[in-house]
């Protein structure tokens, strides 16, 4: 597989530049789906802002050649960042999940495929052998078990079971922009949004050439793949409870990670249930608004379960320095979501590559300035917290 031509400086120097480029290239419905969050978006904003309250304490006059490599869930990674599951990625760019998985492979790291994906498990696995499958129990147990069987046969490395979606969050940008109309097949509901969409002819041409919004090829019920417009209702009928972990374990013999942990008590419960890992995550602020930023609850969760399970952090990563701060506070790796998705929306494979190049260069530079030779050197000794930062 060929490597795409990357987006180069001086035009694209940070993730904010990729976000701005995505904003120009996507219609409102697609961009705000990616960029938006629940209700007043308080939590989404604080996910990013919380990093400013963690202060570095560098060790000076230390020669470093930072080693970013690590191992998570038995998978060797060239950097301590895994690409997070992004639903409806194919709406952002036709390559969607293929671009995400391929970019992760070129960066030497892993990719988590969302249940709400437009490309099948098989095609995504062709792009990367360090792939995981994120699980919603959509379509019922039998449909989920069929997906597990496919993923297992393909060599997926583990499951990320999402527990924070009892109902879809109240993302007010979506109805304002006609997101449901865009996803549907009927023409009439789309008409009020046509003028704005027509202002993005490149996106529209690719979207139409790709056949519009695809079904979900990894949620196959008795009537066929689930259609995109049925996802909200399906999520409400697919809420994961702790008791579900027993049959999930019976159906899957690889690593199982619980995604959506925000309290030390839930972290401990995941450990007690035999989870191989947890993701400290508030779903990027897209579910319940006004919960704490993920970074603020990380220290308390680390105190409770460090050494008992793998701890992965998710929420607000925009710079390599953010990755370093999360690791200093006890995470073993982070998930990167919007940061790479902005790149995908802006330029497909090349945009994903540029996002990961930026984050890697940031992290290397940060570690050199901190005096850290490896990710194991990123400890609490290298940071201080502003008063009132932590939420337990």
Overview of this protein structure:
This protein has a single domain, classed as TIM Barrel, CATH 3.20.20.70. The model has no long low-confidence stretch (mean pLDDT 93). The longest helix has 33 residues, at 338-370. The termini are far apart. It has 392 residues and is an alpha/beta fold. The chain has helices at 15-25, 28-35, 42-49, 89-92, 96-106, 121-127, 140-154, 173-177, 179-183, 194-198, 201-209, 231-236, 244-251, 264-272, 294-305, 320-328, 338-370, and strands at residues 54-56, 70-72, 75-77, 81-83, 111-113, 131-135, 159-162, 216-221, 224-226, 256-261, 277-280, 310-314, 333-336, 383-385. The strands form four sheets. The chain has an eight-stranded parallel beta sheet with strand order 4-13-12-11-10-7-6-5. Strands 1-14 form a two-stranded antiparallel sheet. Strands 2-3 form a two-stranded antiparallel sheet.
Order of the strands making up the biggest sheet: 4-13-12-11-10-7-6-5
CATH fold type: TIM Barrel
- The class by helix and strand makeup works out as alpha/beta
- In whole angstroms, the N-to-C terminal distance is 47 Å
Tally of separate domains: 1
Please give the share of residues in helix: 40-55%
The CATH architecture designation is Alpha-Beta Barrel
Low-confidence stretches: none
Approximate shape: globular
Name the CATH superfamily assignment: Aldolase class I
The total count of helices amounts to 17
Q: Please provide the count of β strands.
A: 14
C-alpha-based Rg, rounded = 20 Å
Strand content: 5-15%
Task: Please give the CATH class.
Answer: Alpha Beta
Mean pLDDT: 93
- Give the biggest beta sheet: 8 strands, parallel
């Amino acid at each position: 597989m060929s490597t795409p031509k990357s987006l180069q400086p001086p035009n694209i120097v940070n993730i904010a530049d990729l976000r701005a480029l995505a904003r120009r290239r996507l219609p409102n419905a697609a961009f705000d789906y990616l960029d938006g969050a629940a209700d007043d978006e308080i939590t989404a904003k604080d996910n990013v802002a919380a990093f400013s309250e963690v202060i570095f304490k560098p060790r000076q006059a230390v020669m470093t050649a930072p080693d970013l490599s690590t191992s998570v869930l038995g998978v060797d990674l060239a950097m301590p960042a895994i690409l997070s599951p992004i639903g409806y990625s194919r709406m952002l760019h036709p390559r969607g999940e293929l671009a995400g998985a391929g970019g992760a492979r070129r960066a030497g790291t892993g990719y988590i495929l969302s249940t709400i994906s437009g490309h099948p498990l098989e095609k995504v696995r062709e792009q990367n052998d360090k792939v995981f499958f994120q699980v919603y129990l959509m379509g019922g147990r039998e449909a989920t078990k069929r997906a597990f069987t496919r993923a297992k046969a393909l060599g997926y490395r583990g499951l990320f079971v999402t527990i924070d979606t009892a109902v879809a969050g109240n993302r007010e940008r979506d109805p304002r922009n006609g997101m449901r109309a865009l996803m549907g097949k009927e023409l009439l509901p789309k008409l009020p949004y046509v003028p704005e969409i027509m202002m993005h002819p490149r996106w529209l041409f690719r979207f139409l050439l790709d056949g519009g919004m695809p079904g979900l090829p990894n949620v196959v019920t008795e009537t066929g793949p689930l259609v995109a417009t049925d996802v909200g209702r399906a999520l409400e009928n697919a809420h994961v409870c702790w008791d579900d972990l027993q049959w999930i374990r019976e159906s899957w013999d690889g690593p199982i990670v619980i995604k959506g942990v925000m309290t030390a008590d839930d972290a401990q419960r995941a450990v007690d249930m035999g989870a191989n890992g947890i993701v400290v995550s508030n779903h990027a602020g897209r579910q319940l608004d006004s919960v704490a930023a993920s970074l603020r609850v990380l220290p308390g969760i680390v105190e409770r379960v460090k050494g008992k399970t793998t701890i992965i952090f998710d929420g607000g990563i925009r710079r390599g320095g953010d990755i370093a701060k999360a690791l200093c506070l006890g995470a073993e790796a982070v998930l990167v979501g919007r940061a790479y998705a902005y790149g995908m929306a802006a330029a497909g494979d090349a945009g994903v590559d540029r996002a990961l190049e930026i984050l890697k260069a940031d992290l290397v530079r940060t570690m050199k300035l901190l005096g850290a030779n490896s990710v194991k050197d990123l400890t609490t000794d290298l940071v201080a917290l502003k008063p009132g930062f932590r939420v337990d």
